[in-house]
Amino acid sequence: MQPLAEQIRPSCLEEIVGQQHLLAPNRPLRRIIESGRIPNMIFYGPSGVGKTTVARMIANSTSMSLHKLNGTTASTSDLRDVAAEVGTLSGMHGILLYLDEIQYLNKKQQQSLLEYIENGQITLIASTTENPYFAVYNALISRSTVFEFKPVSSKEMQKAVERAFSKIQQNMPGSIQVADGVTAHIAGGCGGDVRKAMNTVELCVLSAEKVENGLHVSLELAQELTQRSNMRYDRENDQHYDLLSALQKSIRGSDENAALHYAARLLSAGDLLSICRRLLVIASEDIGLAYPQAIVITKACVDSALQLGLPEAQIPIAEAIVLLATAPKSNSAYLAMHAAMADVEKHGALDFPRHLQNCHFDGAEAAVKGQHYLYPHDYPHHYVKQQYLPDEIKNAVYYQFGDNKQEQAAALYRKKLLEETTE
Predict the structure, then answer these.
(1) What's the Cα-to-Cα distance from 241 to each of 46, 139, 238, 271, 278, rounded to whole Å?
(2) CA 134/CA 297 separation, integer angstroms
(3) Collapsing DSSP states into helix, strand and coil, what is residue 277?
(4) pLDDT for position 420
């Protein structure tokens, strides 16, 4: 039997829920579809938000020879078969290739399409759940227009849920009694994924309580079937990195509440390791020398979390997050290292000043005999001025003291040290 999501798949643009930023009247994708002149396009967005539906509508509205492939199963031979139709009678009006999950094709397979796409012999409509600027070959990106599809809002989703119950009702002899709040709960509990919402509706009907003259779908049943379906998360796709990015940016912005929210989503998905690694990065990159103890405390919290495991790991993780979000911030060490790395990239491996080398004898070729290293501990305040950087960059400055209490205290100490040793 055909899944409900397929049975009620929209047949026209007006039936599509969500994506109004692309499909509302006078919006760009809508105008392209209505023009009948189809360019190469890549549809990017999470699962179940209408990418395939829109692509099918476009494909069915043209006179071009249509080929449908899925990146998970398509082979190089399949792509050759599509290209072989170029110049034949069946392809005289053009060839439209709808390629779902294009990110699963390797670079060589994607490159094989370039020649035909560039000269217009094949028009490509591809879809992907991963960021195409990372997952799709650059040359294909440059020859295509990328449209981003977004998760469907609860308000729009409710229309699809109501239509799904109505569709099932048409094919059943008895009535379906849907309790108050069921459609709204399903609409809000499926993470903006229409396909997931349709599957939930189908499950609700299949497991509904039998009553006189039909079935009764209770709110409790809907809640049970959607209790975790709103957790849109996959460790291998963009959502994983988006959550970690949102966590770090919230801590960097000193918003502990937002940081706790994104951490809760990661932990709810059972991803303890990723959050632990990111917190260690944050402690050094964003708090840094403004509060040097932050990395020590964060490491202790992370070790505790990994030893405890979930759900108890939530406690030390929360402690680390609140500490980092409310701590003073400095990225001075982070910037200093980036500047140093840039110099290494620019100049390569420069020679060391002789007095820093690990050598204890002079060769015959040495113009100046002796190492001449000044041992700082032999001097007042354990400091003596001497050159440490290679000659070519001897005046380079990478680190700038931050404007926080900790680094300003270090800056003051350095200033006094220099003043006293030059007197």
Answers:
(1) 14, 24, 5, 12, 11
(2) 35
(3) helix
(4) 80
Separation of alpha carbons 127 and 148, rounded Å: 10
Return the structure tokens found at 386: 């001497």
* For helices 238-252 and 272-282, angle between their N-to-C axes, nearest 10 degrees: 40
CA distance 206 to 200: 10
Between helix 272-282 and helix 256-268 the angle, nearest 10°, is: 150
Instruction: Quote the tokens at residue 159.
Output: 């229309």
DSSP 165-192: HHHHHHT-SSEEEEPTTHHHHHHHSSTT
DSSP bridge partners of 124: 97
Q: What is the mean pLDDT of residues 285-296?
A: 95
Tell me if the bond preceding 353 is cis, omega within 30° of 0. no
Angle between helices 238-252 and 314-326 (to 10 degrees): 50
Cβ–Cβ under 8 Å, residues 420 and 381: yes
- Write out the two tokens for 245: 């990015």
Q: Does the pLDDT of residue 313 top 90, yes or no? A: yes
Token pair of 349, please? Answer: 């491996």
Q: Are 149 and 169 in contact (CB under 8 A)?
A: no
**Distance between CA atoms of residues 186 and 78, nearest Å:** 39
Query: Does 293 score more than 90 pLDDT?
Result: yes
Q: What is the number of H-type helices and E-type strands within the chain? A: 20, 8
Q: What is the predicted pLDDT for the residue at 286?
A: 96
